[in-house]
Amino acid sequence: MSLPALDNLVRIGQLKAEPRNDAEVRRMLAMARTHLDDAQLDGLSTEGRFFSAYNAAHAAALAALRWHGYRSENRYMVFQCLTHTLNWPAPRWRVLDAAHQKRNVGEYEGFLEVEESTIAELRALVAELIADVAKLVET
Length: 139
What we know:
By secondary structure, the protein is an all-alpha fold. It has one domain: Nucleotidyltransferases  domain 2 (Four Helix Bundle (Hemerythrin (Met), subunit A)), CATH 1.20.120. Helix content is 73%, strand content 3%. Strands 1-2 form a two-stranded antiparallel ribbon. Helix 2 packs antiparallel against helix 7, helix 3 crosses helix 6 and helix 3 runs parallel beside helix 7. The protein is globular. The chain starts with a helix and ends with a helix. The mean pLDDT is 93.
């Protein structure tokens, strides 16, 4: 399903148009669910639960983008595109974008300071994201 705003991102090289692969989308959604389950494991470190929740968000957002027939080589774009792929308002996807920035600091600078409340908020939002992607995929 072509979307004009995403087609514009293709034109400027921020996204690639690529035929939808339903099996790939289902695998990504399953991966998102697995990562979200991992993010709820008490035995994992705070960092491990945060990274699991973030990875769940990325997999689900990428599944939505792929369902529409696009792909991004930039991880942050999948969150920004949620406005178009799932009609998410900016305040919702910006929470995921903030998690992406936190993830980058942890991955590339070795510094991750995250509170339990942040992880809880992220997990709740990711659960909503997965549900919204599942509705999209199942229609």
